[in-house]
Amino acid sequence: MAFVRYNRDINSSVLVDRVREQKSVMLVPGDVYGLDGYVRIGIGAQKHHLEAGLARLADFMRA
């Protein structure tokens, strides 16, 4: 797993919900670990799943 910091004025739980709804990407909000402003990314999946999810997340964050 990896914790990734983001630079947006939005709570991590709200961000994770929006990413899930709009891009079908599952993340864990950092605020459940006391780390609002971060998301947790699981890296145990197959490489092509991770790459696709990261591409969708990047697309969401650029919008």
Summarize the structure.
The protein has 63 residues and is an alpha+beta fold. The protein is built from 2 helices and 3 strands, in the order E-H-E-E-H.
In words, what does this structure look like?
This protein is an alpha+beta fold and 63 residues long. The chain has one domain (2-55). The chain is 44% helix and 16% strand. It contains 2 helices and 3 strands, in the order βαββα. A 3-stranded antiparallel sheet has the order 1-3-2. It is globular, with a radius of gyration of 11 Å. The N and C termini lie far apart (25 Å). The mean pLDDT is 96.
- Low-pLDDT windows of residues: none
Helix content: 40-55%
Number of domains: 1
Put simply, the count of helices is 2
How would you sum up the global shape?
globular
| Strands, total number | 3
Structure class = alpha+beta
Provide keyphrases for this structure.
single chain; 63 residues; alpha+beta; 3-stranded antiparallel sheet; 2 helices; 16% strand; globular
Layout of secondary structure:
Elements: E1 2-5, H1 12-23, E2 28-29, E3 38-41, H2 47-62
Antiparallel strand pairs: 1-3, 2-3
